[in-house]
Amino acid sequence: VDSIGIDIGGTKIAGALVAEDGSIIRHTRRPTPAADGEAILDAVAAMVTELASDGSPRPVGVAAPGFIDLARSTVYHAPNIDWHNEPVRARLRERLPGWEISLDNDANAAGWAEWRFGAGRAVHDMVLLTIGTGVGGAIVTAGQLLRGGFGAAGELGHMLLVPGGRLCGCGRHGCLEQYGSGRALMRYAVELADAGGIGQGLARLRADRGAIDAEGFAELARSGDTGALEALRELGDRLGQAAASLSAILDPELFVLGGGVSIAGDLLVDPVRDAYLAHLPARGSRPEASFAIAALGNDAGVVGAADLARSAGAISRAAD
Ligand SMILES: [Zn+2]
Question: How far apart are CA 183 and CA 94, in angstroms?
Fold first, then answer.
């Protein structure tokens, strides 16, 4: 049976009708009326009706940023959206009577999609790190999405990396997000541009464009500029350290790197893997995890939300 996935982002809401094999049958999207929580619910309900053009109810999974409760019904808190302890499932059921609706965190939905249909489809245990403006994450272990005791597991961007370090949006100091995100990458690039030396290419880019933008940076990195590669190495070093600590806890077979920065491909994977190996506890006397770039891109959220609506995040995959 097909199902519907809706992914609520800060600027747009994406929706899709998704087949059981993870393929997208139909797509739709709208801008997010972020300042108006009611208008978001109206938009989601309208998109569901539009996607189910035959009008018959099927499972609907909604992925949203922020903390979702274990019952998958309430958004405790969503950054940039006017929802506080919002009973999203109940509010959507008022608009869509008779429909099965479930909620999940957006990074968890993306991780589930990668494990089911993307880069992680051949492994049992996988960790997703999304490297965008911030750092998100998801954990799949023994065929289950790890939700934790309260629903808020997998917030990997907020693991402590630097005691007493930079202030994070979560209110704490020194989170991975402050050192391993796209925003941190731009900070490293600016520092290198200021320092001269290998940062000359970055300094020229800044002079040409008025600022170091993500697109210009990506071009420079692809051309082999040593400053841009050094900035990626700094970023990868932090992410690799975090991956090594995660291995001590979760022992995944595979780390999948997603989010906007992952378009850097091997230029990101190589430094992350190097730092992971350098920091891995008991290296040499244990198996080492592999690293891969996410395969589903921007579709991961809708595909994962749709599949979670059907499977609830638990699949038994025969061990071979
Ligand atoms: Zn934090």
Answer: 39
Q: What spacing in Å lies between the alpha carbon of 290 and ligand 1's midpoint?
A: 26
> At residue 103, does pLDDT exceed 90?
yes
What's the gap in Å between 171 CA and the centre of ligand 1? 6
- Residue 320 CA to ligand 1 center (angstroms) comes to 39
Tell me the pTM.
0.94
Instruction: Label residue 320 by pLDDT band (50, 70, 90).
Output: very low
* Residue 59 backbone dihedrals phi, psi, to 5 degrees: -60, 135
Other CB atoms within 10 Å distance of the CB of residue 248: 11
pLDDT digit string, tens, across residues 117-160: 999 999 999 999 999 999 999 999 999 999 999 999 999 999 99
- B/e letters for 53-92, b = 16+ CB within 10 Å, e = fewer, are eeeeebbbbbbbbbbbbeebbbbeebeebebeebebbebb
Of the CA atoms within 13 Å of residue 291, those in its CB half-sphere come to 24
Q: Give the span between the Cα atoms of 213 and 308, in whole angstroms.
A: 35
162 CA → ligand 1 middle, Å: 11
C-alpha span between 172 and 168 (Å, rounded): 5
pLDDT tens column, 254-267:
999 999 999 999 99
Position 319 pLDDT exceeds 60: no
Residue with token string 């091997």: 266
CA of 159 to the centre of ligand 1 (A): 7
Distance 106 CA to ligand 1 centre (A): 17
